[in-house]
Amino acid sequence: MSVxxxxxxxxxxxxxxxxLGSLTGLGGGVVIIPLLTLLLKVDIHYAxxxxxxxxxxxxxxxxxxxxxxxxxxxxxxxxxxxxxxAGAMCGAILAVYIPTHYIAxxxxxxxxxxxxxxxxxxxxxxxxxxSYLSEKLKLNSSYPTANGTVNYSVNKVGGGFFMMLxxxxxxxxxGIGSGALKVIAMDSIMRIPFKVSTTTSNFMIGVTAxxxxxxxLQRGYISPGISMPVVIGVLFGAFTGSKLLVQSTSSRWxxxxxxxxxxxxxxxxxxxxxxxKI
Amino acid sequence: MAKFKDTDxxxxxxxxLRAGTIxxxxxxxxxxxxxxxxHGQTTAGYQVFTGVPDFLQxxxxxxxxxxxxxxxxxxxxxxxxxxxxxxxxxxCSAIGFAIEKDYLYVGISVLVLLIIFAxxxxxxxx
Lengths: 278, 126
Prior knowledge:
The structure holds two protein chains of two kinds. Chain A is mostly helical. Chain A has one domain. Helices cover 75% and strands 4% of the residues of chain A. Chain A contains eleven helices and two strands. Chain A has a two-stranded antiparallel ribbon. Chain A is globular and about 60 Å long. The two termini of chain A are 20 Å apart. Chain B is mostly helical. Chain B has one domain (8-38, 53-125). In chain B, 75% of the residues lie in helices and 0% in strands. The longest helix of chain B is centred in the N-terminal third of the chain and has 34 residues, at 6-39. The chains are: A mainly alpha, B mainly alpha.
């Protein structure tokens, strides 16, 4: 296949990956890696490197808008980034020693978990109980809504921190943002309003990915020929997705379509990993 | 000067992230045009992991190649800038927290920077 055709295929595929990733909140990486490895037979290390770069681009691009709106909890993000960056560093180091077919299997498993998590019903919970740690760390905050400013408190700081360490390892190991895991840590464990947890997770994804990208860059996993169409495609796809989200509020059917696609890709990754084709 | 507040840090961080993304993606795009113009008709081979060409791995030759309009080097510079953007964001928040005199969060920001720096050294040693 010529470089021109190869680049075009990746560009188009990445655009749709970014679009779906942003509409469903799963991120573009979960589609990009199977696309590159299964369809185009790209080595999984190159796929992880390119995906990681696209994760940084989409996170930075969208975080810029959210931070200014004042929804993102900056202090909470900064504090939890200690866990995610440390995890990402460990993940990137581990990736060098783990055989690629195990990485493919793990990728499939995390993909299924993320898809299931994204289908959960989201109930907005506002907790007012202030824990000792969240007071000390000044994590309790407020965010603007249509009905005025809402104050909320953060709970189980230790548990959330631990879960973030795990999310960081997965992000560094597989080259995805692992936004689903980050949102779980903040929603279910720390009891933060959904809007705050989504934007704060997105805020943290970029720096988490950077912590492992510096390792991958030096090990030659980030190849310009693949990263270029991936990062451009995913970023524009995500941008289109964010415009569409503002217009339509019912994306429930889309989540289902995406969950089915993701389950299929996950199955393929696991199958190829088990049979040793990746 | 009016008191420096959280909203000012947010505005600063937002601008850094936006500018970093736009500039780095533009560089990647320009590099991509040079790359495709030169290598568009060659065969794409990424099935076996061989790392990246040597001239992209050393800072000196990377910059020289980029100024000689070698597409891959320009793309790689854009990607490095993209990776640096969130790190720059952490540095900006550290400065912002310092102006606010919130030393706890200056410490937390510096700790995050140290972890990334450790990661950088680790990748280099391997």
